[in-house]
Amino acid sequence: LPATMPVYAPRVATQAALGAMHRTLIAPIEVALGDVDSLVVVPHGPLHGVPFHALYDDRSGSYLVDRTRVR
Prior knowledge:
Elements: H1 9-25, H2 30-33, E1 38-39, E2 56-57, E3 62-63, H3 64-67, E4 69-70
C-alpha cells in the first residue's frame, strides 16, 4: 500500500461495493422479507459470484448474515 493510503482503505472500499450490491439486490425486496429466519438464494449467471451473506447494509451498519441465515 502507498504510504499515504490508510490501512483501513481496502475495508472501506469493500464495504462500499457490498453496500452497493445490497442496495441493488436486497433493499428493493427488504419489506417483503420482513423478519425471515433464513433466506435461500438461487443465483443465476453472474450472480453466482456475489457473496450474498456479506452484502452490507449501510443504514444499519451490518451484513446480511447478521440479520438472517443465508443459504
